[in-house]
Specification:
eight-stranded antiparallel beta sheet, 8 strands, homotetramer, mainly beta
């Protein structure tokens, strides 16, 4: 199976990276992840824009997801054009040049036991 | 990227704000959030209606989400026309004059460790 | 707002009611909930079928959701034609005579701190 | 009700099986589950492909879901063609010869209190 599945644009309205966590690093670092799946036989170039409550969006953050691969991208790790601010509400839009599937997950380790959330991102019809 | 994405009407069938919580306020106050993303270049006027099990819906609660901004709206903070009752099952419908994306998140801090849930809201085709 | 929104058929592939829990009852009883929203001006008659791994489906469980009301239905409370078995994997299909919106939530209180999950149910196009 | 509902192809971009857990086995073993519902009157043959970050996909894992049955499939239990590696990010694509509904759930018991996540999988239009 290597046909392309999914959409070229996805939105995640929820985003928040706590500035601290508990537990062994890096598995239990509080983190916010976009899980991206590229089933096609073409490498995907993915552009991410981060939206805020009180300032202009930042981006694009450029990521590669090779053909027939998944990438579990931690927003914590984005550096260019600038790190995603901690303790700040944000949202994101993810655009790709080939169809992909995107799922959103957060591990919150601020308290002694971690909490998890996950949801399919919103697929935008183009 | 500043084209409008999403839908003008969204529904969240689940809603419940516990009347108490544990942990430092306000980050660990039990809360129920509608994360709204407006990627368009027009400010959005958002009208929220709250539905109950045993009485008529209340609303509209009016909120602004500026162009190219996100707003993580805590139902706890809604005051006008009246606060959302605690310890009460509710649901909500969110209508906007420009397309938006809505995701639903709850942090439940009633016990010593917080629990999280999140899901994309239901996008209504108009 | 009292137009009908949603779908007439929904599916929830996940279902599991633990047979025990911890914490004050009934708020912290482990439970599995279908949150149903009926925004229309007609009362909804809802029929629920429960599917299992190794026996025929059971149903219909009949529930009413009045016009412009929500109902947060605990699967724990279903009694007729028979209670939903505990500690058993199941799935459900929810059919309504008017369009509704359905969201699935579980509170798992088997351990000392509760865990939560939620997702929009799968809307079936009719 | 025994008409077929759902889609023939689903994708889950998120996947991760921790290599350890706490609590009584097997209920509290950390696990990753695809909950599959087949409402049709035909048995379904389901083929699962696992995608990785840095190597070619593995599959197909073949599973049967009988007519009018659900199957809550733990990725932990997949053995043929080979077990799913632990502590490794993956994604999955699920294909069936009859329409099914798929929901994704994880129980993470690495810490003393379990955490849960769940989301509807991504339904692919064929």
């Amino acid at each position: 199976m290597n046909k392309a599945i999914g959409h070229k644009t996805w939105a995640i309205a929820e985003g928040y990276i706590p500035s601290y966590g508990t537990g062994p690093e890096p598995a239990f670092t509080s983190h916010e992840t976009a899980c991206i799946l590229n089933t096609s036989d073409q490498d995907a170039t993915v552009s991410i824009w981060i939206y805020f409550e009180d300032k202009d969006p930042i981006g694009p953050y450029i990521q590669k997801v090779p053909a027939r691969r998944t990438k579990h991208l931690r927003f914590n790790d984005l550096q260019d054009p600038q790190p995603v601010p901690r303790d700040t509400d944000y949202a994101s839009v993810i655009e790709s040049d080939v169809p992909i599937v995107v799922q959103h997950t957060r591990l919150d380790s601020r308290q002694s036991e971690n909490a998890l959330l996950s949801t399919i991102a919103f697929p935008v019809n183009s």
